[in-house]
């Protein structure tokens, strides 16, 4: 969330349908969780009301966000988020050098998981190269921000590892959080077929989340992601060589 606030998470690197889906999923999860809490307290009518109205309101808010996004960005579509926005060899964009660097930094931070220092180091190399070659705009040497960021995406294994660990640990924390509710009901209200089955399912889900943290699986998934990014980077460079 800090990265989102400081580096423009909701900027152009996100499509409108993704923002709407995030709003719908988060609102629905909160509504259903609160409805389940009311259900366990015996307030059945309120539980149904909160679950149904909360989910409907979340879906409506998500739809409104998508429609607003389409009105603000009429040309935006659900394209591959890691595909270049403009073809290789295109003319320099309307953005000036400072905007180009800011856009590139955001893409490196948000799409490819670069740390602030790693992104700044890459941009310092861009500035130094432009000074040495006399280029007036970085796009003359490096193309669009999307293309340049894609060409660097496969060169930083640490960023891929950080994204992988963040995703797995976030899922593990979420499972552990819901486990507190499951176990508290089991111990406070006594065992029942439903509570025991729910506790068993939660325990299996916890084992699955913990099992996914194995170093072997991390190496496999990180290597696959790096290979994918490297292929995309090679495709961008090949297009520039052929243009």
Q: How does this model look, in words?
A:
The chain is mainly alpha-helical. The chain has helices spanning 2-7, 16-40, 44-72, 97-110, 116-133, 139-142, 145-153, 157-189, 193-211, 215-242. The protein is elongated, with a radius of gyration of 23 Å.
Topology (elements, then pairings):
Elements: H1 2-7, H2 16-40, H3 44-72, H4 97-110, H5 116-133, H6 139-142, H7 145-153, H8 157-189, H9 193-211, H10 215-242
Task: Please supply descriptive tags for the structure shown above.
mainly alpha, 10 helices, 0% strand, 243 residues
Number of strands: 0
Q: Major beta sheet, specifics?
A: none
Q: What's the rounded overall pLDDT mean?
A: 81
Structural class: mainly alpha
Q: Percent helix among the residues?
A: over 70%
* Number of contiguous helices: 10
Q: Name the helix and strand elements from N-terminus to C-terminus, one letter apiece.
A: HHHHHHHHHH
Radius of gyration: 23 Å
Brief write-up:
About 75% of the residues lie in helices and about 0% in strands. It has about 240 residues and is mainly alpha-helical.
